[in-house]
Design a protein that fits this description.
There is one protein chain. By secondary structure, this protein is α+β, with helices and mostly antiparallel strands. It contains 12 helices and 13 strands. A 5-stranded mixed β-sheet has the order 4-2-3-1-13. Strands 5-7-10-9 form a 4-stranded mixed β-sheet, with no helix packed on it. The protein has a 4-stranded mixed β-sheet with strand order 6-12-11-8, with no helix packed on it. α2 packs parallel to α7, α4 packs across α6 and α9 runs antiparallel to α10. It starts with a helix and ends with a helix.
């Protein structure tokens, strides 16, 4: 047990060291988002290649030089990101070469009954601490005005997972580790299927399929950098002063996104006039950076300044494809 405790502490210290070395904590505490793990691989001079690996999520090769392989056969970006963090852990902790399947990477490294390869335990602990440190969860809580009790709501946990770029199940395990939820609540959250969460968030919009994620965005997300997939849907919910004639308008993204549903909801069945919820379901049309701006004003006073504005920066991507990661391609081109 003492040896396992030392392994965990060493892995946590290694992740904290990277946060410090590259200024990640300072950056994300002021502007909460996700840890860019593929960039960290590149900045640590560890080549990362994406290949269709049979039976594996990833691999770490330590000889003759450190290198990482990530499978393209599990196209969910959150899985590729956690696998990359796991393999980066092998490299930083100077482990032997490792072939990692789903059974290795998906298990919780903080399970008290866990047994097995110590270097795999250490790599998973490193990945959790790198991608989901407690301070990052607190930063998102402050940004969204969430309380600890809000983590009893599967939709809130799901939105936290999207903002950190990790899976829903990994987020549930990590909240239990930090004692933000009870064991009973953890059990209930884990048994809540992501599809049922998406169906509640989607409102009046019914997609062709439920593969993509659903981001729920409000005024609280002004200035947020959204890292979404081309398959994802943005559900934007804005308080609208309809009784005073004010409406929200999407100003600058017509060529980059489609509004696939647009509806209004009252805050309660007894509400008459006043403020209502304006909701829009938005689909990105292409990969790359998109700036989306909403302004609230009276439509007959187009020259007047809006009473409220919300701006979202969206980086739309596909799961990493075969070859170098998109980040490594960009960095290589910039250095050429």
């Amino acid at each position: 047990m003492a040896n396992r405790r030392r392994i965990i502490m060493d892995a946590v210290k290694a992740a904290v060291s990277l946060h410090t070395e590259f200024g990640i904590k300072d950056e994300l505490c002021s502007n909460p988002g996700r840890v860019h793990v593929f960039d960290l691989l590149d900045r640590n001079n560890i080549p990362c290649l994406f290949q269709p690996l049979d039976g594996l999520l990833g691999a770490y090769i330590n000889s003759p030089y450190p290198g990482v392989l990530i499978s393209t056969k599990r196209p969910k970006l959150s899985i590729q990101r956690f696998t990359a963090a796991h393999e980066l852990g092998h490299a930083v902790l100077e482990h032997q070469s490792s072939l990692d399947n789903e059974a290795v990477i998906a298990r919780s490294p903080f399970d008290c009954n866990l047994s097995g390869d110590e270097q795999e335990i250490a790599a998973n602990v490193f990945a959790v601490e790198l991608l989901m440190p407690k301070w990052l969860i607190v930063a998102h809580m402050k940004k969204q005005s969430w309380q600890s009790s809000d983590f009893n709501n599967p939709s809130v946990v799901y939105q936290l997972s999207l903002r950190m770029g990790v899976s829903y199940s990994a987020t549930c395990h990590t909240l239990l580790k930090y004692k933000a939820i009870s064991a009973d609540k953890h059990h209930a959250l884990i048994n809540t299927k992501p599809k049922s969460i998406k169906e509640k968030l989607s409102g009046k919009y019914v997609p062709e399929n439920w593969r993509g994620d659903f981001w729920y965005l409000t005024e609280q997300d002004t200035g947020l950098s959204v890292h979404a997939s081309i398959e994802d849907t943005l559900i934007v919910s804005l308080s609208e002063s309809a009784s005073s004639g004010y409406q929200w308008f999407l100003e600058n993204a017509d060529q980059n996104v489609d509004i696939v549903e647009d509806w209004r909801e009252t805050f309660s069945s007894n509400s008459i006039g006043g403020v209502i919820n304006r909701k829009l379901a938005i689909k990105p049309k292409k990969c790359g950076y998109i700036s989306i701006e909403f302004n609230e004003y009276r439509p007959w006073l187009t020259d007047a300044d809006p009473i409220e504005s919300v701006e979202l920066g969206c980086m739309i991507s596909d799961p990493e494809r075969r070859g170098l990661s998109d980040m490594m391609r960009a960095n290589s081109l910039a250095a050429a």
